[in-house]
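Support case: magnesium ion complex. Customer-provided input:
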Amino acid sequence: MRVENVDVYYGDFRAVTEVNLEFGLHEITALIGPSGCGKSTLLRSLNRMNDLIDGARVDGEILFHGENIYSKGVDPIEVRRRIGMVFQKPNPFPKSIYDNIAYGPRVTGMKVESMDDLVEESLTRAALWDEVKDKLKQSAIGLSGGQQQRLCIARAISVRPDVILMDEPCASLDPIATMRIEDLMQELREQYTIVIVTHNMQQAARVADRTAFFTAQVSEGTGARTGVLVEYGTTTQIFEDPNDQRTEDYISGRFG
Amino acid sequence: MRVENVDVYYGDFRAVTEVNLEFGLHEITALIGPSGCGKSTLLRSLNRMNDLIDGARVDGEILFHGENIYSKGVDPIEVRRRIGMVFQKPNPFPKSIYDNIAYGPRVTGMKVESMDDLVEESLTRAALWDEVKDKLKQSAIGLSGGQQQRLCIARAISVRPDVILMDEPCASLDPIATMRIEDLMQELREQYTIVIVTHNMQQAARVADRTAFFTAQVSEGTGARTGVLVEYGTTTQIFEDPNDQRTEDYISGRFG
Amino acid sequence: MRTLQDSLAGAPTMPLKTGKAHGERRAGPLIFLIVLWLSLAVAVIFLLTLIVNLLLEGGSRFGMPLFTEYPSSSPDRAGARPAILGSIWVIATTALLTIPLGVAAALHLEEFADKKHWFNRIIELNVQNLAAVPSIVYGLLALAFLALIGVRDKNIVIGGALALSLLILPVIIIATREAIRAVPSEIRDGSLALGATKWQTTWRQVLPASVPGIATGSILALSRALGEAAPLLLLGALVFVSFDPNGLLSGFTTLPIQIFNWTGRPQEGFHELAAAASILLLGLLLLMNGLAIFIRNRYQKRW
Amino acid sequence: MLANTTASDTEATTTASTGGPTTPSGRPPRSSLAGRARPGEAVIKLVLRLAAAVAVLTTIGIVIALLVPAIGFFREVQVFDFLFGDRWAPRFADASFGVIPLVTATLWTTAIALLVAVPLGLGAAIFLSEYARPRVRNTLKPILELLAGIPTVVYGLFALQFIQTTVFREWLRLDTGAFSVLAAGLVMGVMIIPTVASISEDAMSAVPMSLRQGSFALGANRMQTSLRVVFPAALSGVMAAVVLGISRAVGETMIVAIAAGSQARIVTGPLEQGQTMTGFIANAALGDSRVGSLEYDTLYAVGLLLFLITLIVNFISIRLVRRFRQAY
Amino acid sequence: ALVLTACGGQPAAGGDSADGGVSGSVVADGSSTVAPLTEAAADFFRDEAPDVNVTVATSGTGGGFAKFCAEETDISNASRPIKDEEITLCEEAGIEYTEIVIANDGLSVVVNPENDFAKCLTVEQLNTIWGPEAEGTVTNWNQVDPSFPDLELALFGAGTDSGTFDYFTDAINGEEGAIRTDYSPSEDDNITVQGVAGDEGAIGFLGLSYVEENPDSMKAVEVDGGAGCVAPTAETVQDGTYSPLGRELFIYVNNASYAEKPQVKSFVDFYVESEAEVAEAALFIGLTEEQKTTAQDELATLG
Ligand SMILES: Nc1ncnc2c1ncn2[C@@H]1O[C@H](COP(=O)(O)OP(=O)(O)OP(=O)(O)O)[C@@H](O)[C@H]1O
Ligand SMILES: Nc1ncnc2c1ncn2[C@@H]1O[C@H](COP(=O)(O)OP(=O)(O)OP(=O)(O)O)[C@@H](O)[C@H]1O
Ligand SMILES: [Mg+2]
Ligand SMILES: [Mg+2]
Ligand SMILES: O=P([O-])([O-])[O-]
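Agent response - structure generated as follows:
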């Protein structure tokens, strides 16, 4: 998956400017940077979730298997099925656990031999099966925060995407739940390409193969703020040997 | 001002347990600690703002000039006049700048020789006079966030309190505005006793004379969480030589 | 760690451009959207038909005489002057009775009442229930009340205003509460922290900030009262009034009642007059609704 | 006015501080924190409380106003005969007081109104909440709400003269008389559309954005998201809207008085005419009933029944609304 | 509340105003059939005495008498003579009154314009249709006369509070108030008009003015009271051949009001004086010479 010269606008406001990135297959890429620098904005533009926001617009190309997902004739719904997403706050549907998982395959009209098997497989991969296998018919709202987030991951993989985008998936979780999700990411990485936004630098350092550091740049003339990609490289390089002064300041906690 | 054996309850829930503290006159005391440990709760109980929350209740004594502000016959309204408060989000009234400042003296029926002078004095002390002196009749809503917060400070001092409580006064401000407010606190400290809640440890280190570190303790038996005061001392001591392991962990960022 | 080049190799290609029509453009979603459109369209077409119908029928009678003339046995001479004035009297009286009362009740419930106290919970439940009571029941109430205090001629301005006031009081209370609730608690905290009393805070901060919301709600409620006929019918307001109502105890008729009366006449001319008066009434309601929306958009603060 | 009074009360007793604050915590306070009387404040609170109590008084008033004559009525007529009798002829020499005919007409008009208002109202609500951009919503919603503001007399005439006479009889050549519960019900349904639409839209808008995002992110389209995620999540609010629609329909008077007919008979089909409970009250009000006469009491017996029905319906609605408020 | 009672509901006690013209209010209630007459009179009267407020309510003849005998009204409109029990009521309240015949009317039996078989109905046939025994059994025209087609009956008529109801039941069914109850009774005659216009099998009864004004909606049948078929027209009503449904219309004047309130006196005098114009404007049949003289004599005795 490749991001080429991407600008994202909300109406007249340019939230992200000139981003070029390439996400490695079966790797975890972390996007880090201070608040408001456009990490979520960029992430949402990777599976056209931004289409749903009035006035949001993407310039440049986002190539998925070589095909620009913004080119004419591309079905945003198919894009979203192929590029799954997990949100900051767990957002299970107020339905049963089973129906939460079965929802995606049903709405996308996926041909499945046995929905039960698919549900089990998805939950197993999301390391949740053992905890919920006896209460599949119960409402997902009753689960704990960490379980809900794993359910959301299970739900995302139920439609067999290639890529999973995660926007601060652990921000609302306690440390133990966070650890479980991090472990899960490591497992999922075998099969999926993962892009994760995080505020927690330790987390980025722990899980990501590559890290992209963004910051908000204030234009001298107009005072307009926009997000820019400062540096992109392997996580080790970014954390241990950053090329850019701003990266170093941020990593060492001197700013932000 | 002294806090003696104070517990604060919301209904049955004990948000803060057994706090003993003494705020030094003309000193800045910072209350720090992780989210939900009851800092705001304690702060609000210092000027009886908690009275306004249904079910909130304070046990123990809070002595102001030797008088328990919770004892019978004490007028909470007088307490609030004497112990001012500044909030996290700047909350100017949707009135003119002048009326914002004049509001307190008017409602408390303060005898003032010249309201104009009082407004000027308050704004000057809050380091805002120069910026707004030509637009006193304009709506305060038009000011920038930092200016609004200074306006709120000017407003708080317009009724001549002895103590000013500030609950994360810079949380919604940018670094430059934050710096101005911090400078202002240093000046105000000459005349007022200031208690500030902050999440930003650098800020506490920069401005406070004394620091109190709180944390949320989970009861073994019931699993109920409650805020406790871990350690209280001069800022230098707390930051450089904490007595308690939990303080050290928090300060060094290992937890929270 | 693999290199980027390695990891990009061997990417499977499955086209995103499916042969099929796209997600939102497939038959199902399209039909669904059309059905939704139709739901709105039916309502709007209905509204238009009703208006066009009225215009066709009453347009020719819509002129000065409608405003200046008294009712008459001849449609050519008849006008709705007393009905217009009667409506104004009744609605103005209703407004004076209800708005202060409704606002005060709402202030109590929102700002002062201990929400857990049984008394306030009863009031709350009550207000919600009253909002759903059929208007004709308020007519029965006003009728019984006037009979109780011994008023003989029930067809008086204050009687009509009483029935309509009871009818819209809950509506105004609910609208005011919503307006008050929209005032952020920071404003209250700010005022209280300066040593203002609760009432000072309410009077000087909360109330001014919620005036646009209260105005909007009140106007809408009054416009509902303006169009009501059923409760007034019970007070015997179906009368021929050949004079201008001039006080609270004056006899009166209102536009909706006049319309109802005219349609009950044998002469076709009266039916046209009824349509013309309906146009007038509808125009008034449009005006009031428009004003309410204007206030809502213009003055309502986005905190 | 009131605020001024309080302010000056306060002034009289305040000890305004003069200089800057200098007292160290050990010294005695400059001024006591002692409470003081604020009589103005207390009076105002009382006044506000009384204003709120008017709401309760109104209910008590309604109950008494309806109950006293209704008791008079039930002295003459058995409750059983009233509730289950199938002949309603209260004002004739050979009187009988079975309310069933009025109830059947009310049921028909209400059911027809709901058949119109619920699908159309929900359709409009889904469109406004899930499809319309803010600007479209801000134009369409007031237009829709106009429907609720049209005087019911005007609706009644439209139902009678246009829907029943022109559309049903002339255009569609339906086998129906001058009046029908269908015409009245249809028009009443349109009147109720905004009620159903507006409350359901509130309920749907209250469904957190994150649920919609979750659905879209799985590759669902808008229809699927609306129908399978938003709608079920807003269900209790939608139910409340429907229930409120019911109470509006049951209580509506002028439309049915004008267009449904005035013969109290058991209605067995939509093209028949019939007199509803409200229709009876309005029609009887056109004549005159002396206070204390049986005719007068009859009005109130029907009024009481009407009040109880809407009360029950409304309680259900309040409970449902509370459920959807709690959900998030 | 006390104030309301004391004032009796209407403003201005009345009397001669400064400029010599009369002022004050005249309150009339009662028959909806007669109301258009009194309204027309009030309408014309306004040119004479613009300061007099005339209200005309329509509670039906019976309802009007109830108010009249409770001293709530000055004039009671009636489409039948006052009944014994009403006389008692007035006597008990100490009300003295004068009966004045103010116009003539042919109580018309009407059918749908499409109906081409029921051109003339005998009183017996009408009784078959409307009698109390017919309730639930006589539901088809062919039960009235075997030559009539198989067509369902739909019945409309005046409500129980109206004089029309009393008069019709007395004339056709032999006893006041005796009638089948499964018809559509309404105090609003226009419901009858619409009902008859809207149903091929409809039959109804109402005042002649409605028939004349709505020739497209319905047609009057001839009535055979034993002396052959007679259509209701001005002549047949005035000369009494339209029997038994030709009738006189009345106003009842409160003697005390007439004597003490100049505005009531001048209004009633004016009313009787201009009965011909009034009847014409209201689509009724004027008085015969004889009737007019009687009326003027009655007034003269009141002084
Ligand atoms: N829907 C929107 N409409 C307009 N502006 C938006 C919208 N969403 C975000 N923005 C703006 O775009 C900029 C980038 O926001 P974004 O949420 O992408 O930042 P972020 O890096 O994810 O921040 P955080 O770390 O706080 O989540 C911000 O200035 C924000 O105000
Ligand atoms: N009005 C309230 N009613 C009930 N519980 C409350 C209320 N306000 C706060 N609490 C609870 O009291 C505890 C302490 O809250 P408080 O706001 O004082 O924490 P804090 O230390 O200020 O946190 P933060 O740093 O996030 O502001 C929390 O568990 C909170 O949920
Ligand atoms: Mg973000
Ligand atoms: Mg806090
Ligand atoms: O209104 P009525 O003339 O029928 O009494």
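Chain C has twelve helices and one strand.

Case will auto-close in a few days if no follow-up is received.
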